[in-house]
């Protein structure tokens, strides 16, 4: 078995199928007394599981397991978080009774929320490469902390990522997190040994993007006019990839 790493993902390849492992965590965000950002457990569960599921779907892996490691008591906080995980995963047809497992903290009283989620996906051909001439785009708007709302139509969501992945002309899809758009674009260029002719946009490309509120993705130029009509979220062109001279 070959074990490799792509971005934040660990890939186990037995040459018949590939297992992809993704994870995300959150601290001091939740409903507890010492939390810095106050939000109910259900919303926390939705956004944290959303990030993990986005990471799996973005490379073409089908989610087959979600494991929550909750540094809170089961009742009431853990139950609220789990309800959010179930709600989010059901959006893409996942059955929680089949894929969800986890643990909570029952030994000591907890005054600040901590959560981790690990996801496992399975696939045969993964999408981990961009090509010379690809257009680099961003779907969604970078938002973080108190700016992030579940009902915000401007941010990326699971259904948008799932739809993107189904388009054959779409190559890499990269959920953007705390390091921002510019960082992820630079990493994409380095991975693929390419440069980019940049196009200025109104996006703050250095801003943290919280729980994957936007994604960058690369496409064949032939689909550029069509892609904007397929999504309700704003799509910005960031540039065109080119060979290193």
Global structural class: alpha+beta
- CATH first level of the largest domain: Alpha Beta
Helix fraction, binned, reads 25-40%
Number of separate strands: 13
Question: What is the CATH topology of the largest domain?
Answer: 60s Ribosomal Protein L30, Chain: A
Query: Span from first to last CA?
Result: 36 Å
Shape: globular
The CATH homologous superfamily name of the largest domain equals PurM-like, N-terminal domain
Can you describe this structure?
It comes from Anaerobacillus alkalilacustris. This is PurM-like N-terminal domain-containing protein. With 245 residues, the chain is an alpha+beta fold. The protein has two domains: 2-123, 2-Layer Sandwich (60s Ribosomal Protein L30, Chain: A), CATH 3.30.1330; 135-243, Alpha-Beta Complex (Phosphoribosyl-aminoimidazole Synthetase, Chain A, domain 2). Helices cover 26% and strands 33% of the residues. The protein has six helices and 13 strands. The protein has helices spanning 41-58, 74-90, 96-99, 158-165, 180-192, 224-227; strands at 2-6, 9-13, 18-27, 29-30, 37-38, 62-70, 100-103, 114-123, 135-140, 170-176, 194-198, 214-219, 235-243. Strands 1-2-3-8-6-7 form a six-stranded mixed β-sheet. A five-stranded antiparallel β-sheet has the order 10-12-9-13-11, with helices on both faces. Strands 4-5 form a two-stranded parallel sheet. α1 (41-58) runs parallel beside α2 and α1 runs parallel beside α4. The model has no long low-confidence stretch (mean pLDDT 96).
């Amino acid at each position: 078995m070959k074990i490799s790493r792509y971005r934040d993902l660990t890939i186990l390849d037995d040459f018949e199928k590939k297992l992809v492992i993704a994870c995300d965590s959150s601290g001091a965000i939740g409903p507890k007394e010492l939390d810095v950002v106050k939000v109910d457990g259900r919303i926390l569960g939705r956004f944290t599981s959303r990030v993990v599921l986005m990471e799996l779907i973005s490379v073409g892996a089908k989610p087959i397991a979600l494991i929550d490691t909750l540094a809170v008591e089961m009742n009431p906080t853990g139950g609220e978080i789990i309800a959010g995980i179930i709600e989010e995963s059901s959006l893409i047809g996942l059955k929680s009774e089949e894929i969800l497992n986890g643990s909570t903290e029952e030994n000591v009283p907890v005054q600040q929320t901590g959560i981790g989620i690990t996801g496992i996906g399975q696939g045969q051909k993964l999408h981990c490469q961009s090509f010379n001439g690809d257009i680099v785009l961003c779907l969604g708007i970078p938002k973080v902390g108190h700016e992030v709302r579940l009902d915000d139509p401007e941010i990326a969501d699971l259904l948008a990522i799932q739809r993107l992945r189904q388009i054959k002309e779409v190559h890499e899809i990269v959920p953007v997190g705390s390091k921002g758009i510019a960082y992820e674009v630079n990493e994409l260029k380095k991975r693929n040994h390419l440069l980019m002719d940049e196009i200025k946009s109104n996006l703050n490309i250095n801003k943290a993007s919280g729980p994957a509120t936007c994604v960058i993705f690369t496409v064949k130029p032939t689909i550029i006019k069509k892609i904007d009509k397929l999504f309700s979220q704003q799509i910005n062109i960031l540039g065109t990839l080119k060979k290193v001279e």
